[in-house]
Amino acid sequence: VTLYEPRNEMKELPFIVWPHQVEVIDAMQQAIREGEDFGLEKSRGEGASWMSILVFFHSWLFSEDQVKFTIVTRNEETVDARDDMDALMPKLDFVLDRLPGWMQPPFTRSHSKHSLLNDATKSTIIGYSTTGDVASGGRATAMLLDELSKFPRGQDYEAMASTQHVTNSRFLISTYKGNSGAFFEA
User: Fold this and answer.
1) Which phi and psi (to 5°) does residue 55 adopt?
2) Which of 59, 120, 137, 183 could form a disulfide with 149 if both were Cys (CB 3.0 to 4.6 A apart)?
3) Which residue has better confidence, 114 or 153?
4) Dihedral through CA 79, CA 81, CA 86, CA 90, nearest 10?
5) Is 172 helix (H, G, I), strand (E, B) or coil?
């Protein structure tokens, strides 16, 4: 796949993984298979958010089974702000747009619903912003809670409680932000 990196002279780069990224990607895929939560403290430039959404995207693209992935981030703007590559759903748009035509499945993209549907398999990736009852009532194959340490205090714990029974595999990915909060405790 092709990634976007605005700090480089070449903005569009092939995603060539480093050895330590292979270990993380393998652990993410294992967490989904085994129905376990996965936690990762991230630092800039290591690609944790990219790796998370690409693990979801790979399954969305290639799985013969219907899968549903949920991406949760701290506010609506960081879920699906059109043409903002800091948001998560536009990263998926970027990757999908750069796949060769023969590799792209028929798909439906809804910005108002923050969703990407593989029309052939009915697999979905859906984005949510943080609320106390995020995704409650729904079900997902796996869920990314991106930048959990930056969720407003109180809402971080509510999001953890709300998502506990939505999926068997939550990706808790965040940069460090102090010795308190749901991410720190997890």
Assistant:
1) -65, -45
2) 183
3) 114
4) 80
5) strand
Cα(46)–Cα(74) distance, rounded to whole angstroms?
20
Indicate the pairing of strand 170-174 with strand 38-41: parallel
Amino acid (one-letter) located at 181: G
How far apart CA 174 and CA 151 sit, in angstroms, is 10
The residue behind tokens 């609506």 is 76
Which of residues 74 and 2 earns the better pLDDT score?
2
Q: Closest by alpha carbon to 49, among 23, 9, 21, 16?
A: 21
CB-CB contact of 123 with 117 (8 Å): yes
Give mean pLDDT, residues 87-111.
Answer: 94
List the structure tokens of 172: 């808790």
Closest C-alpha among 73, 106, 67 to residue 91? 73
144 strand-pairing partners:
71, 171
67-98 confidence digits (pLDDT tens): 999 998 877 777 888 778 888 899 999 999 99
- Residue written as tokens 């194959």? 141
